[in-house]
Amino acid sequence: MRVRPRWDAGPVIAPEPRPARPDDGGDPACWARRVCPACGRLADQDPPTRCPGCGAELPDD
């Protein structure tokens, strides 16, 4: 039995290319007004309200 050194491991075969996944999307744009400008947390309800994380006021624009 012949033992091959590590550097002689044989040809490298490239993996098959993966098919592109459809865009899963993200959060709805209508939630943008719920993002706290101070800490970035999403408020539980539409403004006017206070941020549940830092207590900053989210005004109704």
Task: Classify the beta-strand content into a percent band.
Answer: 5-15%
Helix content: under 10%
- How large is the radius of gyration? 26 Å
The number of distinct helices, counting runs of at least 4 residues, comes to 0
Q: How many beta-strand runs? A: 2
Order of helices and strands: EE
**Distance N to C terminus:** 78 Å
Largest sheet: 2 strands, antiparallel
User: What is the molecular shape?
Assistant: elongated
Q: Uncertain runs with pLDDT below 50, 5 residues or more?
A: none
Description:
The chain has 61 residues and is mostly loops. The protein has a domain of 32 residues. The protein contains no helices and two strands. The protein is elongated, with a radius of gyration of 26 Å. The model has no long low-confidence stretch (mean pLDDT 82).
List the helices and strands and how they pair.
Layout: E1 49-50, E2 57-58
Antiparallel strand pairs: 1-2
Distinctive features:
single chain; 61 residues; little secondary structure; two-stranded antiparallel sheet; 2 strands
Quick summary:
The protein has strands spanning 49-50, 57-58. The chain has a two-stranded antiparallel ribbon with strand order 1-2. The chain is mostly loops.
